[in-house]
Specification:
Immunoglobulin-like; disordered C terminus; Maltoporin, Chain A; mainly beta; 25-stranded mixed β-sheet; six-stranded mixed β-sheet; 3 domains
Length: 761
């Protein structure tokens, strides 16, 4: 009887085991114990005849299979440049395995590897993750390396990064803000580049519509990096110089960087025409302007323990700008049929000083949840002085203004990252205070004072299944504004909902919705006149309210072999947009701002990139845009896009970027700007030195136009930058990078924690 009972008990145990939903977990690593991200992981039956499930490793090399039955399986792992890993598994309880991938030296030397690496694209609900090609990783300058990303536009001369729609993204390094820029990053250390095109509510409040997260390899036990370069046209004194230094070890790092962009001999020919009911003013002038932007930063980080990490940065920015204009003006009085010619002289002196501090800390709890704190404070001061004179033998017209704007802004953000029921969740709160004071010093020494408190709550969630990834976010803020001792409160909601469906490893389709909310700029609230036009008074409106934008986007992505294609359709609706309005009073036309804009924007187009083997890539972005203003029944159509490419042959490489003309529309305004273009040839002299020859504004000069047509008022502006055509740039770059193999895990760089994932797994 006892034997029968034991037999029955054994059967029950076996049945319970085979009835369990078991879990198989693992990590994919290389021979240096570095996690391998985006490796293909397949779980098959023991005969390898059918696929049970499949997934890819995340950025920490981790993967998992859930809801499995007990039994025998075959696990297979593969990734480009490594030999395949395969093993048999007997699963009767929760199982964990380390999958070691060995280098496939033969595959790494094949042309197809270099051709396909840049087309390894991971799609998610909120954006895309790109791998850089071997050619890009060998660049000494990260700006040239990032030009390969099809959804980014990089200007190597000004070192500016924008998205393909012209927006300025927030740039993160391993999920962390770094005010000192990215010049200290060695391209060879880049694991991937995430481009988030549907941002969460966490970043919406700051006005960002996109985020770039550059993920890097772990640092060495001891390392030191120097990167410096200069690119200039000596005749017109146009160019940029930058210097970066970083050193560190397993537990800490320190960096400093400096960058200066200058255009010190910018010549242009300008024409303006202002028309009111009673008067016409025409102005022709030649202007010589000087512009400079200098940034200096220091910063670093510290890994206190496996659970605690801190970083800091200090940044100083100085932006002086000045110009002188000489010309003639003609004032036509329609009532008296009188023409009065004048000699025109104008000078401008504008200076901006900005100092900022960022401090960040992260703590990881035993359950892998994360709390992080970010404190930011900035102090800025801007002075703007304009002196303008129009004179003849009978008259002398003066129009001068002198403003000084001082701003203090600080914020503290705390967030908590955790997983619940396989859902990545982040909740946070942010408190922000800013104080602005604009002083007008010409007619009477008076000031415009603005204070604003902002309390913000946000929540992000994302979840990924086998083929579907979902992300949602909501943020609610309360704005308490005091303008000229008048109190006003506003409450806003920002939201995001995104989805991506992976048809197969190469094809995916996605949809996202974003609701943005924008507060007016401080200059838009300033009630003082800032126009030098003798017929126009232009001033802000302290009563402006935030406005809202709803954006819907449908996109498809194909990344296979040598081809990357991403067509998309988007529809954007704006309510209560801030637009210019005006009315004629006496002999002046008084312009101000109001929440009266209601418009829509429909855009459709495609981004296409083709890899030319080890030689590089070429790409083309083309969009059709249709703008409608329901307020005045106005419709406008225009095209936008750019051609881009990067080619490499032995020690010579070429990067080119040529855009279509840009347009912008307001309720009564149409702006036009001729194409931005640049081309650069780079010769690799040695492991440390590069020489370059480039050109800007290829085959054309910089040309800007603006038309304004309002009831009772019209304005036309045209500016030809006469020495901005076929600008030849000469450059040199030096890079020294001493690196030793690291032994520690990627704790400092945050790549091992899902709480710092921008793109959902």
């Amino acid at each position: 009887m006892r034997r029968v009972l034991f037999a029955c008990l054994g059967i029950i145990i076996q049945l319970s085991i085979y009835g369990q939903n078991l879990v198989l977990k693992g990590n994919v690593i290389d021979q240096q114990k570095v996690p391998v991200m985006y490796a293909s992981v397949a779980l098959m039956d023991k005969e390898e005849k059918s696929l049970i499930s499949g997934t890819i490793s995340d950025t920490s090399g981790h993967f998992s299979f859930t809801n499995l039955k007990a039994g025998e399986y075959v696990l297979s792992v593969s990734f480009l440049g490594y030999k395949n890993f395969k093993t048999s598994i007997v699963l009767n309880k929760e199982y964990h395995i380390n999958c070691l991938l060995a280098d496939d030296t033969v595959a790494l030397n094949e042309v197809v590897v270099e051709a396909n690496r840049s087309n390894i694209v991971k799609n998610s609900a909120v954006g895309q993750t790109f791998m850089l090609s071997e050619n890009a990783l060998k660049k000494k300058d990260i700006m040239l390396a990032l030009q390969e990303i099809p959804t980014l536009s990089i200007d190597p001369d000004t070192r500016k990064i924008t998205t393909i729609d012209g927006g300025k993204p927030l740039v993160l390094i391993n999920g962390i803000r770094r005010d000192g820029g990215i010049s200290t990053i060695n391209p060879e250390d880049i694991l991937s580049v995430e481009v988030v095109q549907s941002v969460s509510a966490e970043f919406m409040r700051e006005g960002y519509t996109s985020v770039i997260n550059i993920k890097t390899k772990k640092n060495s036990n001891r390392y030191k990096m120097v990167n410096a370069g200069v690119s200039t046209h000596h005749t017109i004194r146009f160019g940029i110089a930058d210097f970066s230094f970083e050193t560190g070890n397993d537990n800490a790092s320190f960096y400093t960087s400096a960058q200066s962009f200058a255009f010190l001999n910018n010549k242009s020919k300008m024409f303006e025409k202002t028309t009111t009911t009673n008067n016409i003013r025409e102005l022709s002038s030649k202007r010589n302007s000087n512009y400079n932007e200098t940034d200096v930063s220091i910063g670093g980080d510290k890994l206190w323990s496996d659970k605690n990490y801190s970083s800091y940065s200090f940044t100083l920015r100085y932006l002086p700008q000045s110009n002188e204009a000489l010309g003639t003006s003609l004032l036509i009085d329609r009532n008296e049929n009188r023409n009065a010619p004048y000699t025109y002289e104008r000078t401008l002196d504008n200076k901006t000083y900005v100092g900022s501090i960022n401090a960040y800390h992260k703590h990881i709890f035993e359950n892998k949840s994360i709390i992080d704190l970010l404190y930011q404070i900035s102090l800025s001061k801007n002075t703007n002085e304009v002196n303008q004179t129009e004179f003849n033998s009978d008259d002398n017209i003066l129009r001068n203004y002198n403003f000084s704007n001082t701003r203090v802004k600080s914020s503290l953000t705390a967030s908590y990252n955790f997983r619940i029921a396989e859902v990545n969740t982040k909740i946070g709160v942010s408190s922000q205070y800013q104080h602005n004071e604009i002083s007008e010093k010409v007619s009477s020494y008076s000031s415009f004072k603005h204070r604003e408190w902002n309390e913000y709550l946000f929540m992000n969630v994302n979840r990924t299944w086998k083929k579907i990834s979902l992300a949602a976010s909501i943020g609610m803020d309360a704005i308490f504004r005091n303008v000229e001792n008048y109190n006003e409160n506003f409450y806003n909601i920002r939201s995001m909902l995104s989805m991506n469906y992976k048809i197969n490893p190469h094809h995916s389709i996605g949809f996202n919705y974003n609701m943005y909310s924008y507060s007016p700029a401080i200059t838009d609230l300033n009630p003082y006149n800032n126009s030098s036009d003798t017929l126009t008074i232009s001033k802000g409106n302290p009563s402006l309210k935030p406005y809202h934008v709803h954006k819907f986007r449908l996109m498809y992505s194909l990344a296979k072999n040598k081809i990357y294609i991403s067509p998309s359709f988007s529809y954007q609706l704006i309510n209560d947009a801030i637009v210019s309005i005006g009315e004629e009073q006496d002999s002046y036309y008084i312009k101000t701002l109001a929440n009266q804009g209601k418009s829509s924007l429909f855009t459709c187009g495609s981004n296409i990139r083709y890899s030319i083997g080890k030689l590089g890539y070429v790409g083309f972005l083309f969009n059709y845009n249709h703008v409608t203003y329901s307020t005045i029944n106005q419709r406008n159509d225009y095209f936008s896009g750019r051609f881009y490419g990067g080619l490499t042959y032995k020690k010579i490489s070429m990067n080119i970027n040529y855009g279509l003309p840009s347009h912008n529309y307001d309720l009564y305004t149409h702006g036009y700007s001729s194409p931005e273009s640049n081309m650069r040839l780079t010769y690799n002299v040695s492991k440390k030195w590069d020489l370059s020859l480039g050109m800007r504004y290829i085959a054309s000069i910089k040309h800007v136009k603006e038309w304004v047509n309002m009831p009772g008022y019209s304005y036309y502006f045209e500016n030809d930058f006469t020495n901005r055509g076929n600008i030849i740039m000469f450059g040199v770059r030096y890079k020294s990078y001493n690196n030793k193999k690291a032994k520690r895990e990627q704790k400092k760089l945050q790549n091992d924690e899902k709480g710092f994932e921008i793109i959902s797994q």
